Automatic annotation (TrEMBL):
Annotated protein name in UniProt: Elongation factor Tu, mitochondrial
Xref: PROSITE patterns: G_TR_1, G_TR_2
Location within or outside the cell: Cytoplasm
Catalytic activities: GTP + H2O = GDP + phosphate + H(+)
First-listed, main subcellular location of the protein, grouped into a coarse class: cytoplasm
SUPFAM superfamilies linked: EF-Tu/eEF-1alpha/eIF2-gamma C-terminal domain, P-loop containing nucleoside triphosphate hydrolases, Translation proteins
């Protein structure tokens, strides 16, 4: 317990130094929901509410995310509001079964009396953080699962940091495995979690916390920690997450999560629309990894049904005219024609995590090359320090130049993380888009910077 308390103190420090995240992809503040109509007349910006909400489970490995997901569907199935999806159907890949862990993010849908939820169950294992990022980038709100017998662990923290980065505004905590501990420990876990949430920029004092045992609930146990804890969680989700208000005015934008070929028809890309409205036959650009491919939206499908248009928040499959499957990569953006430009060169504000925060031990010098993660994509990236700086120590923050292996779409305020050997070592935001820079023979080490 002492170790955890020490780490917590260090994290308090970390928040103060971390640059504020302004996620360009994040949704409008909650109060917009209430005043949407009034504001729309004044600002001529239209916001439309939907009773659909994208949620999911995040948190440290083995803390019970998949068990909770299965339990939610089971409890609601008994009320006729969902189809029961068993634990084995969620973790269905042979490797997941063999290792007893989640590797791929899995999707289930369910209804409460008030809403329809699309739920993404994310992996907790450190090796599959990129699948977690991709899953979390679709969520409006996340259920952070923490096992009461463990308390917050490394991926509890990392997932919170990443949740903030991908723009999740609302977090609820399900303190799982409450069957294994006494009340005193539960209280301690709650205190630790509230402090951790505040450290990462959430309002720790008001985040709802539900205690329970997902396993008991899945087994149909009607005692307080069993089925009633799931009902309480769902009730809390309905009440705590305000109606999700989406930007329907800006040109549409959708990060690609997946792509497949429909024989005889062509390439279909899958994702959640972040903003705007896409209409059948719209001209659009598929952008990223150095490519800007012009295409047309031949067909749009929601839950396998063709629709004339789809709006921000919808999870869609889009048939792209004349597109080869080989040209599509997860993380590319499908956007309204000519709404963005590609660049591989950016100015950014960065913070290097300290050793105690899971970061590096050693300082960073110019030409530092690692994998960069933003939204649903990742790419090799070189970091060059401001010419006035010789090096940056873990714990330092400052302005840097980023050079990506290929051109991507990034905008001012867009957050990113840098990972080294599967560990998040830095976090930052884009401050300026610069003119693309030549990467000779695809080797970042050979880039000649203009500023030195
Ligand atoms: N005692 C107890 N065990 C639980 C509870 N919930 C889950 N478990 C067990 O904890 C183990 C891990 O559960 P999972 O649901 O696979 O955990 P996870 O968070 O999805 O794990 P990853 O997806 O691999 O990160 C399993 O053996 C579960 O049966 C609980 O409430 N009480
Ligand atoms: Mg799991």
């Amino acid at each position: 317990m002492n170790g955890r308390l020490i780490i917590r103190t260090i994290y308090c420090n970390f928040t103060r130094k971390t640059p504020i995240n302004h996620d360009v992809f994040s949704y409008k503040p909650a109060f917009f929901g209430v005043f949407a109509n009034k504001l729309s007349t004044k600002t001529e910006t239209k916001f439309v509410e939907k009773k659909h909400c994208n949620v999911g489970t995040i948190g440290h490995v083995d803390h019970g995310k998949t068990t909770l997901t299965a339990a939610i569907t089971k409890v609601l199935a008994n009320d006729g509001l969902a189809q029961f999806t068993s634990y084995d159907e969620i973790d269905k890949a042979p490797e997941e079964k063999a290792r007893g862990i989640t590797i791929n993010a899995a999707h289930v849908g369910y209804n409460t009396k008030l809403r329809h939820y699309a739920h993404t169950d994310c992996p907790g294992h450190a090796d599959y953080v990129r699948n977690m990022i991709s899953g979390a980038s679709q969520m409006d709100a996340a259920i952070l699962v923490v096992a009461a017998n463990d308390g917050p662990m490394p991926q509890t923290r990392e997932h919170l940091l990443l949740a903030k980065q991908v723009g999740i505004q609302y977090i609820l905590v399900y303190v799982n495995k409450a069957d294994l501990v006494d009340d005193e420990l539960l209280e301690l876990v709650e205190i630790e979690m509230r402090e951790l949430l505040s450290d990462f920029g959430y309002d720790g004092s008001s985040v709802p916390m539900v205690y329970g045992s997902a396993l008991k609930a899945l087994n149909g146990d009607e005692s307080e920690l069993g089925v009633p804890s799931i009902r309480k969680l769902l009730d809390t989700m309905d009440k705590y997450i305000p109606p999700i208000v989406r930007d329907l005015q800006s040109p549409f934008l959708m990060p690609i999560d997946n792509a497949f070929t429909v024989p005889g028809r062509g390439t279909v890309v899958v994702g959640t629309i972040k903003r705007g409205i896409m209409k059948k036959n719209d001209e659009s650009d598929l952008m990223g990894f150095g490519y800007n491919i012009k295409t047309t939206l031949s067909d749009i499908q929601i839950f396998k049904k063709s629709v004339p248009e789809a709006v921000a928040g919808d999870n869609v499959g889009v048939l792209l005219r004349g597109m080869k499957i080989k040209a599509v990569e997860t993380g590319m953006l499908l956007c309204a024609a000519k709404s963005f430009t590609l660049s591989n060169h950016y100015k950014a504000n960065i913070y290097f995590l300290t050793r105690n925060e899971g970061g590096r031990k050693k300082p960073v010098f110019s030409k530092y090359s690692q994998q960069m993660f933003s939204g649903t994509w990742n790419i090799a990236c070189r970091i060059d320090l401001d010419p006035s700086m010789h090096m940056m120590m873990p714990g330092d923050h400052g302005e840097v130049y980023l050079t990506l292996l290929e051109g991507m779409v990034m905008t001012q305020g867009q957050p990113f993380t840098i990972r080294e050997n599967n560990v998040t070592v830095a976090t930052g935001i884009i401050t300026e888009t610069l003119e693309s820079i030549d990467v000779p023979k695809g080797k970042l080490g050979k880039v000649i910077m203009r500023y030195n």
